[in-house]
């Protein structure tokens, strides 16, 4: 549900660009509203998750997220769209922290890596949301969001009835940031998130403006990227168990650098789409590894540790798009996309941060 709703938004960004006549600068600044909402929500949701339980919080937030998405196409002006995007970002970010906290509880109870497969479901759904733009291209955005999003939210809310007793904790501050080894984990997640957010929000615009594609073909970049993330995440748990988190992180970084470079240099879809595939393969396991490492922290409660890493990590998903917009406005959209390859080098350089913490 969470991934599908995000994919729906990503697929229809060109429609908002056309409706409000947005240039790169304006779109980049508008996307900062989503980033602001999510960054405020991350640590608050982590604290709430520890206090009331990750499962309960997830169930409470699902109706909020779908309502904020449906509100976006109803906004008649940029002055109203901006706060609506802030609320959408807050609902998305809070739900993300809560459901990842719940997932790490299930992983600990099972005693083996499984978080990657949960993230595969997110990627599969976000790709499906983006691909649905092929069907609804040129049609009303509200109709698109309602027809696809409402059934997904209803199903997600119904499925959260499953019995589960979440861990509870009253320790720690209301607003926590990473500390110790989690800072480096957060930086690795940030580098991956900047790339993921940029592809989600700029790939469609990039294919239209830099590669002269039509609006109907524009969602293909993100759809290929998300499909690649699904593939590697489905295999990720077994790969992590076999090779370890450090080696997987380093290899993933190399793939991400290669894929982002191909996208930035591609003269057409023939190289751009394989580049999006490699980039997705490179970024796919980074978030599951980062959240598993955060949940294993010995210095913070699990919910706050996940939220602290998410503040840097998933914050990057939302900071990345406006950053690319500002760079594109100052230089070109190709150079903005090339920046993702440079950021991916951080994943290679800091791979050792993903190793499990030493036993007490």
Provide structural commentary.
Residues 181-360 form the Major facilitator superfamily (MFS) profile domain. GO terms for molecular function: transmembrane transporter activity. One of its GO terms (cellular component) is membrane. Pfam families: MFS_1. The protein has one domain (2-354): MFS general substrate transporter like domains (Growth Hormone, Chain: A), CATH 1.20.1250.20. The chain has 360 residues and is mainly alpha-helical. It has helices at 2-11, 13-20, 24-52, 54-71, 78-110, 115-136, 141-159, 181-209, 220-243, 245-265, 269-283, 286-295, 302-330, 333-349. Helix 6 runs antiparallel to helix 9. It starts with a helix and ends in an 11-residue tail after the last helix.
Question: How do the helices and strands line up, and which of them pair or pack?
Answer:
Blueprint: H1 2-11, H2 13-20, H3 24-52, H4 54-71, H5 78-110, H6 115-136, H7 141-159, H8 181-209, H9 220-243, H10 245-265, H11 269-283, H12 286-295, H13 302-330, H14 333-349
């Amino acid at each position: 549900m969470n991934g599908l709703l995000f994919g729906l938004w990503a697929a229809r960004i060109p429609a908002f660009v056309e409706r409000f006549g947005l240039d790169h600068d304006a779109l980049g600044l508008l996307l900062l509203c989503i980033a602001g909402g999510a960054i405020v929500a991350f640590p608050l949701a982590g604290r709430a998750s520890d206090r009331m339980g990750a499962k309960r919080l997830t169930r409470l937030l699902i109706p909020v997220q779908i309502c904020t998405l449906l509100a976006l196409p109803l906004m008649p002006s940029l002055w109203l769209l901006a706060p609506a995007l802030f609320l959408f970002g807050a609902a998305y970010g809070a739900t993300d922290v809560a459901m990842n906290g719940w997932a790490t509880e299930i992983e600990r109870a099972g005693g083996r890596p499984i978080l990657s497969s949960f993230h595969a479901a997110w990627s599969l759904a976000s790709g499906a949301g983006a691909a649905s733009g092929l069907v609804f291209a040129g049609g009303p955005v509200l109709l698109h969001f309602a027809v696809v999003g409402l059934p997904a939210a209803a199903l997600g809310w119904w499925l959260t009835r499953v019995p589960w007793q979440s861990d509870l904790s009253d320790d720690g501050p209301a607003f926590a940031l990473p500390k110790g080894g989690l800072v480096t984990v957060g930086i690795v997640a940030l580098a991956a998130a900047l790339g993921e957010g940029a592809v989600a929000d700029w790939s469609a615009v990039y294919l239209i403006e830099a590669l002269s594609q039509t609006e109907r073909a524009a969602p293909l970049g993100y759809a290929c990227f998300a499909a690649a993330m699904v593939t590697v995440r489905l295999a990720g748990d077994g790969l992590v168990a076999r090779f370890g988190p450090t080696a997987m992180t380093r290899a993933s970084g190399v793939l991400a650098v290669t894929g982002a470079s191909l996208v930035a240099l591609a003269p057409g879809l023939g190289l751009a789409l394989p580049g999006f595939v490699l980039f997705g393969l490179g970024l796919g396991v980074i978030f599951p590894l980062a959240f598993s490492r955060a949940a294993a922290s010995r210095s913070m409660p699990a919910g706050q540790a996940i939220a602290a890493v998410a503040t840097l990590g998933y914050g990057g998903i939302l900071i990345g798009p406006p950053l690319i917009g500002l760079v594109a406005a100052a230089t070109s959209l190709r150079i903005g996309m090339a920046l993702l390859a440079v950021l991916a080098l951080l994943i290679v350089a800091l791979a050792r941060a993903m190793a499990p913490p030493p036993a007490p």
